[in-house]
Amino acid sequence: SKFCCISARMLRHYDHIGLLHPAATDEQNGYRYYDSSQIPTFQRIEKLKRYGFSLAEIKRLLTLTEAELNIQILLQYERVKEQAASLTETLTCMERDISHFKEGITMNRNYHIIVMNTPEQRVFSVKRTIAIRARDIHGLISDLMAQAKERGLHRTGPCQLVYMGSEFNEDMMEVEAQLQVAEAHPDTKLLPDSLSVTTIHQGPLEEIHTGYQAICQYLDEHPEYQLTGISIERYLKDETMVSSAEELETAILFPVIKA
User: In what residue span(s) does the HTH merR-type domain sit (predicted)?
Assistant: First the structure.
């Protein structure tokens, strides 16, 4: 226990779950005895715990070959890196709110809601299932722009994101990224003109839900407008046009008909 800096209680737990059995057990007093040959296994267990594996996962990992174990560690590295990026985004949002609080800026936003006609659009699009996080959306938009360039298409308006799923799922949502373009092409399509209830969110995408809440409240107060389609986020000022997330401008559009 002392040599490996593991409590006796934890050693008993390892034995109980079949993760690591003692080399010998005294039948009279129940004392567990371990030998020096087990030290590398102790060290590996503790390292895998630090990597974020559960004890049940570690029990399985200890049966793998070195090559198989290395693959699992690489996969875990990617998972931990994703978690770290998500935590960094959360910290950034918290720091922004704390800064606003210290400056006396209210967290409640005032949104101006309008009902507008959207003209027919020719768009090039890429459909994908992604996590609804700023970095994943930015990655999809970058891929959209690159594919449009490969096809010789020229941008005529902002990029936009259409949510395709019937239910919102932050971790796995089917979306379609669209770019307004000038040229007709086998990979482009025409979107018909439509009527939309719209507002503009200024600031980070992580806070855009407040804009959605404002539109939902407007629709509750104006029952003459009925939803006819899925929501669209139109990036009027995207990350390539601004120097900070506070300067981003995103239009939120809900297609409607007037009853």
Answer: 1-64
- Asked, colleague to colleague, whether 8-63 and 114-258 share their fold, the answer is no
DSSP string, 26-50: -TTT--EE--GGGHHHHHHHHHHHH
What whole-number distance in Å separates Cα of residue 72 and Cα of residue 47? 13
Query: How buried is 57 (Cβ within 10 angstroms: 0-12 exposed, 13-18 middle, 19+ buried)?
Result: middle
Which pLDDT tens digit goes with each residue over 53-67? 999 999 999 999 999
Residue (of 119, 134, 180) closest to 154 by Cα position: 180
Contact 123, 181 (CB under 8 A): yes
Which CATH topology does 8-63 take? Multidrug-efflux Transporter Regulator; Chain: A; Domain 2 (1.10.1660)
Q: What are phi and psi of 149, to 5 degrees?
A: -65, -40
pLDDT digit string (tens) for 137-148?
Answer: 889 999 999 999
Burial of residue 58 (CB within 10 Å: 0-12, 13-18, 19+) is buried
Q: 126 near 144, Cβ under 8 Å?
A: yes
| Residue with tokens 């010998």, as numbered in its chain | 24
3-state secondary structure of 177: strand
Closest CA to 123 of 75, 61, 186, 191: 191
List, in sequence order, every residue forming a beta bridge with 199; answer none if it has no partner.
Answer: 252
Topology at the third CATH level for domain 114-258? Multidrug-efflux Transporter 1 Regulator Bmrr; Chain A (3.20.80)
* Single pTM value for the model: 0.61
3-state secondary structure 101-140: HHCCCCCCCCCCCEEEEECCEEEEEEEEEECCCHHHHHHH
Instruction: Name the residue ranges covered by the structural domains of the chain.
Output: 8-63, 114-258
What angle, rounded to 10 degrees, do the helices at 134-150 and 66-102 form? 110
